[in-house]
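User: Here's a chain of 115 residues. Predict its fold as tokens.
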Amino acid sequence: MNDQFADIFTETHCPEQSQLLAYVNGTLTPAERHEVELHLQDCGMCAEAVEGLQAITEKERIPGWLRQAKWELLRKLRRKTHKKREVNLYLFIAIVALIVLLLAIGLWWGYHFSR
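Assistant: Prediction complete.
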């Protein structure tokens, strides 16, 4: 996939996905758990993500679902950028056609009135 869509959370200071999953599963050390809890107090997005993860009963399936959601998001983003390119291509063709039409009218006009 395109590098510009590699990870939408690269610029944040949020815990990694694996850390949040480990927090939900209770496999973090006490110090790591404390760090995540401090972060959750300040970050509503991560707090809601953890709340949603905790509501899931089949926790062993979470990594697969997250992978699937990420690929689906990347596919949709890629499709959106592809549609933008199509629109730009159609706009370019329309502009070129308009220029050719205007040149043809100008040449006809010049030929018609030069007689």
